[in-house]
Amino acid sequence: MPLNHQFLLDNRPEGAATADNFRLVAVDTPALQDGQVLVRHHYLSLDPYMRGRMNDAKSYAACQPLGEVMQGGTVGEVMESRHPGYAAGDKVVGMGGWQEWSVVDAGVPGSLRKVDTSVVPLSYYLGAVGMPGVTAWYGLTQIIDPKPGQTLVVSAATGAVGSAFVALAKARGCRVVGIAGGPEKCAYATDELGFDACIDHRQNGDLKSMAQALKAACPDGIDGHFENVGGYILDAVLLRANAFARVALCGMIAGYDGQPLPLANPALMLINRMRVEGFIVSEHMQLWPQALAELSQLVAAGKLRPRESVAQGLAAAPEAFLGMLKGRNFGKQLVKLI
Amino acid sequence: MPLNHQFLLDNRPEGAATADNFRLVAVDTPALQDGQVLVRHHYLSLDPYMRGRMNDAKSYAACQPLGEVMQGGTVGEVMESRHPGYAAGDKVVGMGGWQEWSVVDAGVPGSLRKVDTSVVPLSYYLGAVGMPGVTAWYGLTQIIDPKPGQTLVVSAATGAVGSAFVALAKARGCRVVGIAGGPEKCAYATDELGFDACIDHRQNGDLKSMAQALKAACPDGIDGHFENVGGYILDAVLLRANAFARVALCGMIAGYDGQPLPLANPALMLINRMRVEGFIVSEHMQLWPQALAELSQLVAAGKLRPRESVAQGLAAAPEAFLGMLKGRNFGKQLVKLI
Predict the structure, then answer these.
(1) What interface predicted TM-score (ipTM) does this complex get?
(2) Smallest CA–CA distance from A229 into chain B, residue
């Protein structure tokens, strides 16, 4: 069996995460038991939620255990199978973690899913037609639930979730305004992704400036917001929200490294009669087939062509992950393993 | 026509409201036109929402205009009628404002409603079987939507909304924990109103202490919360909230006098996958008949017997109102006018 390189969580961050939090090891891949398959990972997904799980704090998921392989989504190829539902050569998506190979109990529900790469590229199953895409779909359809013509805002607009969000929202006839970091990302958002406008948070780094930019970009106010960041951006959105606006709380990455970030004026949720709802998409698996079907159709129709940032080789994973947390990625962050 | 005493809003508060914000005047009641009725007010309702409307700020309702009669709910008796639907002697509830008499265009929908005082005392139509009761009903049934056995928390527990909330929630098989100010109110909450426990916020005046008190009173965590106050109480509730907890945001009186009160850790809404929703009950008039029917039945069955704080005479209205904002009332605050 092949030698397998893995990244373990070695210790927990104090403040910002660093490369020293991770440890690279090499282990032999164990022999397959009945019901197991051996998967060679082609791509590893890097996602902001991983940072939250590195903390030893109450969160929605069990925290990442110390000394174990960093958890994460993977796509790859079945190299050997002792499960009747899988054969060598099958392309599969799973939660293989930060490693080159995984041995999977393929009979466990949700452990592995065969995918069709005739239309949708394999890597997209970690992004637009995977967890990030379904995340955008859930927040849009199950919480924001917009009407045609309404104005929606999404932060981290050019990332995996944001790029799926705008495609799904434009298909529903909404005006969609993004928030992203830097002129290059903002130009890409409007020129390539279909955003009606995009606000550069680096040029609007405080509440007053962001609120003014939102007012200019959303002349009819904000009816729905998909929050990936938190902090002053959410404060600014609340200032421009219309009556009965909905906020899908997906991530608050701005506060992952240290003290909780307060919400300046929660009374605006009352004044605007808003609904603010947090969610985690893995708790709504019954909706995934419907979401993935729509996302696949958007890809097939050329209406969802997300950009990818691809780091090369497992050893590059920690720096790619830390860079993503700082917004240095441009589109869905992946690590290509072969 | 009778001489009518009125309180006008003379100027807006800077910081805390004071008696000088109001001005007492005497005017002649105008002669009735066709379609109008003359109502003599028996009781005037004093409610926390009035404080918010005294500010010249964006809010859910138009702010109280300067130089005009303070708006507010009233119950009284029709003394003279030029509308075919009303006759002298009818008992009615309306928005007569801080004055002794009102002339009402009775054909305007929602302007006046005849009430039955055979079982429900007239004053209750301003509290348990009126706007505050429907407010409790809406937040409980339309936002919190509890299951039997779940734990619910309500702040301002012994007020008009809190006392209706506990009766409605106990009827649904919930554990209900109140938050009130002082040992007398807390004893009344558990001994008379049916709360399973009541926390004295004067004895738990900071986040840590309140969170510990909530942990003790809610050993299974908090599934639903009805917020009348805001500030550190809401912060503490978020720390003890269960997954998928719901918060009905009804009032945030703690922040009415000055700077907005921040929410310390909004990421808890995400971590707990909570739904937080603001509402104003007057925007859901279609649900009032259903709510009022249940509230009337609870009163008739002796399961909802709210306490009232009754000030005597219109001149006492400002001091009674300011005292209520400081929590000096005990139960529904009314002004008895005759």
Answers:
(1) 0.90
(2) B267
